[in-house]
Amino acid sequence: MNIEHKMSKNGQSGCQKIQTKQLAFSASLLASYYGNIRPFNTEINLIFRNVFTNIGNAYNPDTGLFTAPVRGVYHFEVHICGYGSSSHPTSAVLVKNRQHIFMSYTHLPSGGQKASNGVSLLLEIGDVVYLRMWANSRIFDDHNRHTTFSGHLLFTM
């Protein structure tokens, strides 16, 4: 998308074109059924298959990876849901290029529970952001779309 900005320099008017990209995605975890992503004894990548929006196609619903197509500041949000368990928390880790950025975590012995988190990150072209379910955790989703992963470009650098 081209955006024209009027600029004045020493009292003179002119136009400058700046190239920007529109990038945004939002997806829920499960596309067609409901239930828990069961506990595994290791971390697993979460793949958010029910895509609501994928402007710019930077999110891949087959792999769960968001790959930055332009250098800029991006904002990501995570909302996860689970049902209480004395032995299995509900948790997910946001990862940038294999680096742990933040965790959303809750652990109650019973009842429904939700955890959320968000961050703004400077990404270079080709940087990858994704979610991993923490080992021995479980996450729930259904037709109400309780568990979501979203991100968008705030501005290019």
TrEMBL record:
A Pfam short name: C1q
PROSITE patterns per UniProt: C1Q
Source domain of life: Eukaryota
Residues covered by the C1q domain: 18-157
Main location, first listed in the record: secreted
Keywords for the protein's UniProt record, in alphabetical order: Secreted, Signal
The keyword Secreted is assigned to this record: yes
Location(s) in or outside the cell: Secreted
Keyword Ion transport in annotation: no
GO cellular component terms, A-Z: extracellular region
Name of the protein described by the UniProt record: Cerebellin 10
